[in-house]
């Protein structure tokens, strides 16, 4: 199966005084504004890193639900967060997904179902994965 989805962005102006907007093919986001202050200075508004984190968390949570369902385990609710870090390494800016917080399971054997997802790195291009039993 091959699925294609489109996200787009536009930008007007310089890096500090400019502004841009982000849109999705589905229309879930339609010219949603972002800028330097929301990305680098902690001002209200979205930024590419939190959108990447939301996408990773959403994809990963669905994959975890699949693995649990295939193991015939009931899935009532899963909550996952993905922390995305933007850092400068060797004079280049890099994105690195560094942590996902997963739901706590009562049954320790349930984690055995999850482990194949870790070894398969469900999300391609994942630079690091730390499982945190919350």
Tell me the layout of helices and strands.
Elements: E1 7-12, E2 19-24, E3 32-35, H1 36-40, H2 48-70, E4 81-89, E5 92-102, H3 110-120, E6 131-133
Parallel strand pairs: 5-6
Antiparallel strand pairs: 1-2, 2-3, 4-5
Helix pairs in contact: 2-3
Structure description:
The protein has 134 residues and is of the alpha+beta class. It folds into two domains: 1-45, no CATH class; 47-134, 2-Layer Sandwich (GMP Synthetase, Chain A, domain 3). It contains three helices and six strands, in the order E-E-E-H-H-E-E-H-E. It has helices at 36-40, 48-70, 110-120, and strands at 7-12, 19-24, 32-35, 81-89, 92-102, 131-133. Strands 1-2-3 form a three-stranded antiparallel sheet. It has a three-stranded mixed sheet with strand order 4-5-6, covered by helices on one side. The longest helix is centred in the middle third of the chain and has 23 residues, at 48-70. The protein is elongated.
Question: In the CATH classification, which architecture of the largest domain applies?
Answer: 2-Layer Sandwich
Question: Which CATH class of the largest domain applies here?
Answer: Alpha Beta
How much helical structure, as a percent, in the residues? 25-40%
Tally of alpha and pi helices: 3
Strand content: 25-35%
CATH fold field value of the largest domain: GMP Synthetase, Chain A, domain 3
Low-confidence stretches: 119-134
3D shape: elongated
Structurally, how many domains make up the residues? 2
CATH homologous superfamily grouping of the largest domain: K homology (KH) domain
Report the major sheet: 3 strands, antiparallel
Total E-strand runs: 6
Radius of gyration: 17 Å
Strand order of the largest sheet: 1-2-3
N→C terminal distance: 33 Å
The run of helices and strands is EEEHHEEHE
Q: What is the SS-derived class?
A: alpha+beta
């Amino acid at each position: 199966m091959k699925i294609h989805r489109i996200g787009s962005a536009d930008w007007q102006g310089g890096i500090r005084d400019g502004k841009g907007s982000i849109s999705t093919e589905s229309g879930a986001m339609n010219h949603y504004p972002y800028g330097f202050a929301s990305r680098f200075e902690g001002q209200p508004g979205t930024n590419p890193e939190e959108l990447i984190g939301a996408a990773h968390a959403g994809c990963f949570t669905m994959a975890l639900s699949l693995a649990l369902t295939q193991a015939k385990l009931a899935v009532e609710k899963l909550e996952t967060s993905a922390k995305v870090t933007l850092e400068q390494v060797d004079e280049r800016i890099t994105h690195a997904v560094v942590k996902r917080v997963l739901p706590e399971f009562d049954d320790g054997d349930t984690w055995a179902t999850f482990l194949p997802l870790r070894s398969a790195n469900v999300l391609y291009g994942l630079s690091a994965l730390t499982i945190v039993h919350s």
